[in-house]
Amino acid sequence: MNFQWKVLGGICFAIALSACSTTPDVATPSSDFMKINNGIMTSSYGKTVYTFDKDQPASGVSECVMTCATNWPPVYVEPGIKVSGDFNFITRKDGQKQLTYKGKPLYFYAKDSKPGDQLGENVNNVWHVVKP
């Protein structure tokens, strides 16, 4: 839970910085709070990002709820933020916005404790690191 607050804080900081610019009010996750490290998508803190095979691209629904979402925390988007390119978001049943990439909801893995950890890769043959 603490990590999600840090991500949220980073998103808020990026939004505040974008308000100082004369460019359009569009936050692009790939440059503001998602990074590519060694071919793997991570948060700006280096936390690896995953997709879930049971999620259907562009369905607008996350199949990872309850205990699943505890083990695989969703990558949340601050309400009101605009995304672009291959990024979008879905609204989860609890009303929170979850970031998507190419139509698939994005998640972290709770057991990844250090930046760059990829302990969730291929868990149960349905979880995969995002390799843009």
Automatic annotation (TrEMBL):
Highest taxon listed in the record's lineage: Bacteria
This protein's UniProt keywords: Lipoprotein, Signal
GO biological process: alkane catabolic process
PROSITE patterns for the chain: PROKAR_LIPOPROTEIN
Pfam family, one: Lipoprotein_15
Signal sequence bounds: 1-27
InterPro entries: Lipoprotein_repeat, UCP029720
PANTHER family the UniProt entry points to: BLL4220 PROTEIN (PTHR39335)
Designated name of the protein: Lipoprotein with Yx(FWY)xxD motif
Annotated source species: Polynucleobacter sphagniphilus
